[in-house]
Design goal:
By secondary structure, the protein is α/β, with parallel strands linked by helices.
Length: 331
């Protein structure tokens, strides 16, 4: 049987063997939940056994999957399958060759070289495969948020999705929870203003929010975000780093030739969504303004790393200088 790779949420959860591959905990858990839900929909008395490698010794799987007098449906979940002992791997491979009826085996595997023999064996017998990759790129998390809204049957603007990622960060569980809350509480299309009302505290604590408001020339909002960030424990050096990235992105895109976001993304080493955002931010900038802003960032960086007596003042001065530079062309 040919291997079929799915995302966590697609059909056929009652295949004899499901292989969930990756390191994104939320997606791995969802893959398990989907199988369990389908099994219990078919039989409310389904027995679920959720095991870690230390709980699955030689002979344990055979015991769990042996025929029952009552022919009960069972789901056997094996987590971190790449860490199983050699003897237990032999047991699992033997089972894969002749899976029992009314039993669904779910193998959670991190992928990679460790335990690859078991991974290959499951694929060879045609196990249903669910991809659960770690989402390390902002664009991946943005796609995840969009998918969450679609799954829940709701519409959210691109700006709202981006604002939610900016506010919440990289934790997929928290992103999923935020989407669920917004869908439950808000009627109609969810836009950036709605996300701002719900998550302004977290968004304002982001060093990148400080940088975004500064390079957009919004000095008052940038200063407010800066003060909130410092009050909530954001390290000053993180803020200077975000300011530097924001100004450099303006400079890079200003110097680049025109082109599609995808082409510029490859040329400048930025994701396409950031190209679009920086294009909007750079409207008031001049080459001289970029130079002034970079000097301001360098001075602030020296100030927060011990070159000055008041890191907070150094940051405030940099934010105001950057915001003024951003409005040079408009002025």
């Amino acid at each position: 049987m040919a291997r079929k790779t799915e995302t966590a949420g697609q059909a056929d959860p009652l295949a004899p063997v499901t292989l969930a591959v990756g390191q994104e905990d939320l997606l791995l858990d969802r893959a398990v939940q989907q199988v369990v839900a389908a099994a219990r929909a078919a039989d409310a008395d389904t027995d679920v056994r959720d095991l870690t490698p230390d709980q699955l010794g030689p002979g344990t799987l055979a015991e769990l999957t042996s025929p029952s007098l009552f022919a009960e449906r069972k789901v056997v979940v094996v987590r971190n399958a790449q860490d199983l002992s050699a003897d237990t791997v032999k047991d699992v491979k033997a089972y894969l060759a002749a899976p029992a009826e009314e039993i669904t085996l779910v193998l959670l595997h991190a992928g990679g070289a460790k335990g690859k023999g078991l991974l290959d064996a499951a694929r060879k017998v045609g196990a249903r495969e669910v991809a659960c990759p770690k989402m390390t790129k902002p664009a991946d998390r943005l796609s995840f948020v969009r998918g969450e809204f679609r799954t829940l049957g709701r519409s959210a603007t691109p700006e709202a999705c981006q604002a939610l990622v900016d506010a919440i960060g990289s934790d997929l569980r928290e992103l999923a929870s935020a989407v669920s809350q917004l869908v439950a509480d808000v009627e109609g299309t969810i836009d950036e203003a709605v996300v701002g009302r719900y998550y302004t505290g977290r968004a304002e604590a982001s060093s990148f929010t400080v940088a975004d408001r500064a390079v957009e020339g919004r000095a008052a909002e940038a200063l407010e975000a800066l003060r909130w960030s410092l009050a909530t424990g954001v390290a000053p050096v993180m803020i200077t780093s975000a300011l530097a990235q924001g100004v450099r992105a303006i400079g890079k895109l200003s110097a680049a030739r025109g082109g599609r976001p995808a082409d510029l993304a490859r040329e400048l080493g930025m994701p396409p969504w950031k190209i679009d955002r920086v294009r909007q931010q750079m409207r008031g900038w001049t080459p001289e303004g970029v130079a002034v802003a970079l000097r301001a960032v360098a001075e602030a960086d020296a100030g927060v790393k011990g070159g000055g007596d008041d890191p907070e003042y150094a940051l405030e001065k940099a934010v105001v200088t950057i915001a003024r530079a951003a409005r040079a062309r408009r002025g």
